[in-house]
Every structure is written in C-alpha cells, then in structure tokens.
TrEMBL record:
Protein name: Putative cryptic C4-dicarboxylate transporter DcuD
Molecular function, one GO term: C4-dicarboxylate transmembrane transporter activity
InterPro entries per record: C4_dicarb_anaerob_car, C4_dicarb_anaerob_car-like
Coiled-coil ranges from the UniProt annotation: none
GO cellular component, one term: plasma membrane
Matches recorded under Pfam families: DcuC
This protein's UniProt keywords: Cell membrane, Membrane, Transmembrane, Transmembrane helix, Transport
NCBIfam families: DcuC_1
Membrane-crossing segments per the record: 24-44, 50-69, 90-123, 129-152, 173-201, 221-242, 254-272, 292-316, 328-351
Entry annotated with the keyword Signal: no
Membrane topology: Multi-pass membrane protein
Subcellular compartments: Cell membrane
Length: 423
C-alpha cells in the first residue's frame, strides 16, 4: 500500500507541475490517500481543522490591508519613491533593482503583485538607462522573494502555528522570521552579486538603446512621503513591539491589530471614503480565504492523507538516519518543485505539514527546518519560467520568460546552498 501511496504523491505533484489547479490536485490526492488507507475521516478532519485555524484571522487581515493599499494608491507612492531614488545612481541600477524589489516584496507579499507593481515602473526605467530588457526583467524578478521576512508570509505563519501547537517557546511569527533573517539577508547578498556578475558576463548591464524610448509620463507624479510609508507601517509596528525591541506595547504584536490600525491610518492620511475602505478590506479578506487559505486547507488535507496511509512515518524513519537528508529534502525538494510548478507553496506546505513537525526526531529544530523549506521554495520560484511573476516581468520587457529563468537559476541555486549551510 505504501508503494501505491507513493505513486499517488508523485502523480499529484506531476499534475501540479503540469499547471493543473493546485488546490484540486492536493485535495484529490489527500482524499485518495485517505480512502486507500481505509480512513477517509483523516482527510475530512484535516480539511475541517484547517478551515477554522488561527491562520484564517492572520492571513485574511493581511490581505484586507493589502487591498486597501492598492485602493488608496499608497503602494504606488512607495514603489515610485524607491525607484526614483535608484535612478539617480546609475552604477547600482542592477544590484539596486534586486534590493528594491526584495524590500518592496516584504510589505507586498505577492510575488506576482510585486512583479507587476515594481516591474511596470522599474523595468522600463532600467531599459531607458541602457540595461538590456532580459537583464532588466531578470533583476526585478530576482528580488521577488523578500516576502520570506514578512509577517504576512503564509509559511512564516504556518511554521509559527506548528511551533505553538508543539508548545515551543518563542513561537510567534516575528520569532520565526528572526531564525532565518540573517541567513536570508546573506542569501540576498549572493543573489545581488550573482545577478550583477551575470549582467557583466553577458554585457547586458549597459549600452542598450531602446527604439521605443519616449519621455516618462510619470515624471509629473508627485510622491507623497506619508503615503509611501503606509504599506510598511504595520511591519514597523510589529518590529517595534517585538520582545527584542519592546518599544511599543504587547498589543502591537498582534498582526490583525496592526493591519486594522494601518488601514485606519491610511484612511485618514488619504482622506478616503470609509465605506469604500471597509468594502475593499473585506474583499481582500474574502479573496485571500479563497486563494491563500484554500491552498493551505487543501495542503493539510493532502498531508493528512499521507499520514493516514503511513507515508509520513516511513519518511520520518528514513530521515532519522541523517540530519543532512532532512535538510536537503526540505531545501532542494522545495527548490526544484517550485521551479517546475512556478510556485513554492504546494511543495513547501506539503513538506512543512508532513515532515517539519517531526524535526526533533532527526536532530533539527522545527522552526529551523520549516524556514529552510520556506526560503528555498521562494528562491526556486524566483527562477521559474512558469511562475506568474516571471511571466509578468517578461510581458513588461517583451521577452520570453525562459530568458529570465536562465539568467537567474544558477544564482538562486547558489543562494539555496548558502541557506542550507547557514541554517
């Protein structure tokens, strides 16, 4: 039965890689595994338990805030403020593009959304500054994994929830982020240097003349500093309220509270209609339940099926023989599937839901192993030719997505290797 279960798992991920609906694949795979095990209720219980988990409050409030930032154009002010500053220093255009995108992706956690918001402004700016289109798009896409440091990141919240259920100390979302923050910053340095070297080797960092060059229509756009600060305000509040800092009261450690407060302040600053603000907040919350939470629920159903049929126990026993096996599986497994599927979510959630809770059995910390899979999956997505963010950047630059992927893949692989070493 284990072999049949293994085949179901393989076929599930093959279907995801072939771009079938991820939630459908995980849901069907989970229920099929549970049926084969003779314990259908295992999948049902996994489905129901996750539908009402504490993640719902966190994820929905974050996405509600994100919708308000878009509706009030605060995200546009933040992006334009950073990109204009970057254009004043041509020498750092390519490394600066990676860093700026990475920083913006922290408050704007969607890789595709960040690619659209930043890419629409920064890619044309890079091209006008002499950077070749493929390199300009690759530089922006290479920064779309900054969300690993965001309290709004799905996986950071998922790992925090597991740590709390395991009754581990220091299991808040900000504590989870602190575990891999330095390693992620070190990986960013590798990515920045790597992308810059690639541009130098291919001679694509300077000398390009855009035949369609026209005056920038956005030059007359007046950036409001206070509006530009609104998207990062909740993140600042969370950092200042963290135990290590302690500047703000403990109440500010609540992600939903900071998102609601940030939304209220944005309403005041932009003088927006409160009725429209409330509508957009709940529209974002509802959309996030259908997309982000829907994926988490289906992944939980899948991992429940794997547990029911005995695959989880078998994998754990194999990994107990070596720390390295678990770390390599968590990193390169998530990295490879993210490249093939265009999303780090399915592989990372499946690994973290199935293997990570048992990290102590093979000599690793739960948060440590979960973070390895999280960051590696994000790095893999940032060099995938089928990722939505890659397709967005390619469309803006009018090139093939594969041109972006082949410029980023070696750089991201090296960054993934560094993550394994540091964590």
């Amino acid at each position: 039965m284990l072999y049949i279960g293994g085949l179901v798992v393989v076929l599930t991920f093959v279907a995801i890689i072939k771009k079938y609906e991820t939630r459908l694949c995980l849901l069907l795979g989970g229920f099929l595994l549970a049926i084969l095990s003779g314990n259908l209720m295992a999948a049902v219980d996994g489905f129901v338990k996750t539908m009402t988990s504490s993640l719902v409050i966190t994820i929905c409030s974050i996405m509600g805030f994100a919708y308000i930032m878009k509706m009030t154009h605060c995200d546009e002010h933040m992006v334009k403020a950073l990109t204009r500053a970057l254009k004043k220093v041509p020498m750092v255009l390519i490394p600066g593009a990676v860093v700026v995108t990475w920083l913006i992706n922290i408050p704007l956690t969607s890789a595709a959304g960040c690619s659209a918001a930043v890419g629409a402004i920064l890619i044309p700016a890079l091209i006008k500054s002499g950077v070749y289109p493929a390199m300009a798009a690759a530089a922006v896409f290479a920064g779309t994994w900054g969300s690993v440091l965001s309290p709004g990141n799905t996986h950071n919240n998922f790992i925090s929830k597991m740590a709390m259920e395991a009754k581990l100390p220091n299991s808040s979302v900000m504590e989870v982020i602190s575990v891999h923050a330095l390693a992620s910053c070190a990986a960013l340095v590798v990515v920045v240097i790597g992308v810059t070297i690639v541009a130098k080797m291919l001679k694509e960092g300077t000398g390009y003349i855009d035949p369609n060059d026209t005056d920038d229509e956005d030059e007359n756009f007046k950036v409001s500093a206070i509006r530009a600060l609104m998207p990062v305000l909740p993140l600042v509040m969370l950092v200042l309220a963290a135990k290590q800092v302690g500047v703000l009261p403990e109440a500010f450690q609540s992600i939903p509270f900071t998102m609601i407060l940030g939304s209220a302040l944005a309403t005041l600053v932009t003088r927006s209609n409160p009725q429209e603000i409330v509508k957009d907040f709940w529209r974002g919350a509802g959309d996030s339940y259908g997309s982000v939470m829907g994926l988490i629920i289906c992944a939980a159903t899948f991992t429940a099926g794997m547990t029911a049929i005995g695959l989880t126990g078998t994998l754990i026993e194999l990994m107990k023989q070596s720390q390295g096996v678990a770390k390599i599986a968590g990193a390169f497994g998530s990295f490879a599937i993210a490249i093939l599927a265009g999303s780090g979510d399915a592989a990372t959630l499946a690994f973290n839901g199935t293997i990570t809770p048992h990290a102590a059995d093979f000599g690793l910390g739960l948060i440590q192993l979960g973070s390895i899979s999280n960051v590696a999956g994000a790095l893999g997505r940032s060099c995938s030719p089928v990722a939505a963010g890659c397709i967005v950047c390619a469309g803006i630059a009018n090139i093939s997505p594969m041109e972006i992927a082949k410029r980023n893949i070696v750089v991201m692989f090296l960054a993934c290797c560094l993550i394994i070493t540091l964590l």
